[in-house]
Amino acid sequence: MLLTDLASLLLPRTCPVCEGRMMPGESFVCAACSAQWPRYPMERIDDNMMVRRLWPSFPAIYGATLLAYRHHSPFHHILMRIKYQGHTRLAEAMGRWGGRELQDTALPAWTDIIVPVPLSRMRRLKRGYNQAELIARGLAREFGRPVETLLRRREGRKSQTRLGSEERLANAQGIYSAAIPQHLCGKHLLLVDDVMTTGATLMACAHALLEADPSAQISVFTLACAS
Ligand SMILES: [Zn+2]
Q1: Contact, 104 vs 179, CB < 8 A?
Q2: Bridge partner residues of 114 (DSSP)
Q3: Is the dihedral of CA 5, 128, 143, 103 positive or negative?
Q4: What are the tens digits of pLDDT across the range 166-190?
Q5: Which domains does the chain have, with CATH numbers?
Q6: Which of 57, 87, 117, 196 could form a disulfide bond with 203, CB atoms 3.0-4.6 angstroms apart?
Q7: Which residues pair with 161 in a beta bridge?
Q8: Ligand 1 centroid – CA 30 distance (Å)
Q9: What distance in angstroms lies between residue 26's CA and the mean position of ligand 1's atoms?
């Protein structure tokens, strides 16, 4: 048994939002936090604030997310756990939840391939996992669609985290390239990441894919989106 499995059996689980103890049967967050879950305003997946923000850059078909992201909100801790603290199961479980939430929309049938936003090889090695890949895997289990690494990220670029929105866009351009251009022809691709803030990363990824094959179509899913 892995050490992390053992730890999760022995240590009481804490809610990632309020740090309170989780009760049996509660998943992701405790019942009290779950009742206050900040949903992103999204009645339709083909026309909402998230896709509208991407449209000036590329024609995103569908856009969906689970959480309205605010930097100082305690719900932000979920993303920190996933990204920096090795909570890999939480990432995959959240992906599955997203998949279940979207089951009755057009997205599962529309999607041919689920494409996680990549980390650079160095970052991937250091962290030991790519959170976007885990989320994509969770989503894939619900959608019954494959996950493919169709994007590559160049080494040695600045992390996006500390940059302003224009700097992000400039920094993101040219970072990503299509890894297997011959797999893109006419395909419906669902780009997956943990968070969309300015959208610069998703835009740069979409551009790399569409540049490699303009016949591809792109939708996006993130766990959280800045509101
Ligand atoms: Zn809680």
Answers
A1: no
A2: 147, 190
A3: positive
A4: 777 667 778 999 999 999 999 999 9
A5: 1-36 (no CATH), 38-226 (3.40.50)
A6: 57
A7: none
A8: 4
A9: 10
